[in-house]
């Protein structure tokens, strides 16, 4: 078994601030993902990384940057926080790009004041 | 692009009654279909997946049949329990997108004792 850890659990920032969310997994999975979760809109893919040195934009990448520091960690940066970005950000991983099951962390709830 | 549409919540049921959550999808490829469940304070977790048309998936008393002709994947349970209270997500992964998932908007289920 394994686990995905997301830090912080709650993040409060000011409008215009640059904010970073972190994710660690100990599954030894190749592929990692960042999703944004808004009520009633499901999960939308922001960035994903197929392998350690790869980075791919998802459907909602504008306003975000991502970094795959090593195989086990994947961070997401909100480049300039906006009030309409109050949401839960979920990190996930899968064994590889052909491994369909994704395992999710518990999320980081972002509030922008 | 791919899309998934599911029953809008919230859905409130009494213990022991039956559940159906409708899910319809659009894709030009040959998808694998998924149901994920998310309990409060946790990330989504896989309930089951079905990679082939006309096959059924099941887990914990929930089941769904991949209906290619109707492009549907409705979730059913004959008798719900209070512990089934959660948000349910239908999702698809098409054959050209690797492990990338497209999620529906989610359906919040509350089961009253």
Would you give an account of this structure?
The complex is a heterodimer of chains A (113) and B (113). Chain A is an all-beta fold and 113 residues long. Chain A contains no helices and eleven strands. In chain A, strands 2, 4, 5, 6, 9, 10 and 11 form a seven-stranded mixed β-sheet that branches. In chain A, strands 1-3-8-7 form a four-stranded antiparallel β-sheet, with no helix packed on it. In chain A, a hairpin with an 8-residue loop joins strand 9 (87-94) and strand 10. The mean pLDDT of chain A is 92. Chain B is mainly beta and 113 residues long. In chain B, the strands form three sheets. In chain B, strands 2, 5, 6, 10, 11 and 12 form a six-stranded mixed β-sheet that branches. In chain B, strand 5 (32-38) and strand 6 (45-50) form a beta hairpin. Chain B has strands spanning 3-6, 11-14, 19-21, 23-26, 32-38, 45-50, 56-59, 62-65, 75-77, 86-93, 102-103, 107-112. Chain B contains no helices and twelve strands. Chains A and B meet through strand 5, strand 9 and strand 10 of A and strand 6 of B.
Concise account of the structure shown:
The complex is a heterodimer of chains A (about 110) and B (about 110). With about 110 residues, chain A is mostly beta strands.
């Amino acid at each position: 078994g394994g686990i995905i850890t997301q830090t912080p659990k709650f993040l409060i920032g000011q409008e215009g601030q640059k904010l970073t969310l972190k994710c660690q997994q100990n599954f030894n999975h190749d592929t990692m993902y960042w999703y944004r979760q808004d009520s009633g809109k499901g999960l939308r893919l922001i960035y994903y990384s197929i392998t350690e040195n790869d980075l791919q934009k998802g459907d909602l990448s504008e306003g975000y940057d991502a970094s795959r520091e090593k195989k086990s960690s994947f961070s997401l940066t909100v480049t300039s926080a906006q009030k309409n970005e109050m949401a839960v950000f979920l990190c996930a991983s899968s064994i590889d790009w052909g491994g369909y099951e994704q395992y999710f962390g518990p999320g980081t709830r972002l509030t922008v004041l | 692009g791919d899309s998934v549409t599911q029953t809008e919540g919230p859905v409130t049921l009494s213990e022991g009654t039956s559940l159906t959550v409708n899910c319809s999808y659009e894709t030009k490829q040959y998808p694998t279909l998924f149901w994920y469940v998310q309990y409060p304070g946790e990330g989504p977790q896989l309930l089951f997946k079905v990679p082939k048309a006309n096959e059924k998936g099941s887990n914990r008393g929930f089941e769904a049949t991949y209906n290619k002709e109707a492009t549907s994947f409705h979730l059913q349970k004959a008798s719900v329990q209070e512990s089934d209270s959660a948000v349910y997500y239908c999702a698809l992964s098409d054959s050209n997108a690797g492990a990338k998932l497209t999620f529906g908007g989610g359906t919040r289920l509350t089961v009253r004792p």
